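Morning!

This is the sequence you dropped in the shared folder:
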Amino acid sequence: MIASFPKSALAKVAFSALTAMALTACGGGGGGSDSASGGNGAGVGLAVNGTVARGAAISNATVRLSCANGAELSATSGTDGSFGTNQAAIVYPCIGTATAGTLTYRGILFSSSTANFTPLTDLLVQTVLAASASGAASLTQAEFLAKIRSDSTFAANVSSAASVVAFRNSVINVIKAQLVASGRTQAEADAILAAGTNFYDQPFTIGSALDRVLDNLASLIQNADGSLRATILALIKAAGDLLATPPSGGATGGTGGTGGTGGTGGTGG
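The structure's back. Tokens below.
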């Protein structure tokens, strides 16, 4: 049995005062000196680390992240699924993919320097893209990237603490409902997901508590080849449609890059 979620364009109301209050400059060390029109944020800054996994590690995956100021990060995952990118001065959010053969997982970096690529992060991106357009529409990843690069207000609102919590909770709530629909009790569903709250930016290794969450959810959300089940993607998108759309501020361009912790961001190209 698949639980359904109602869709309503009217549910996308104006962003709450809480979200507006949560709007802050993204953290890290000293900011870069990129111009107001954005830039690639080249220079000493952040290197992003994370893990590519579906429960089992995914090795030799090509990881690419593109950030709001035009910075580009890339890496290849090792035999344990872990990766570390090049350094760059960045502006959040950064969005991207990890691809190994025919399997691709999407991921997103809202803050810090950890971004995982797993079935759960793919569902998170599905939620963000749905919430980023009004009504039942959804942005493509390319459209989302273009918007965060041309509209710094939207980019900051997407990365705000209130937005991130809403995106994450939407994913968790859909999965909990599906676990219960599959015959689990609410307590069992809560226990399965207990270690997966911050699945998108929580450092983890194969065999850890978060990895076991992925193992326990595999049959529910994955096809045999690791791709996401169409039913779960549809439910996740419908739930994302109900979230408030992060406000836009017009085409203002990206802001300066975020430097490494305690360091100074580089000058944009």
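Headline: Residues 161-181 form the longest helix (21 residues).

More detail when I'm at my desk.
O.
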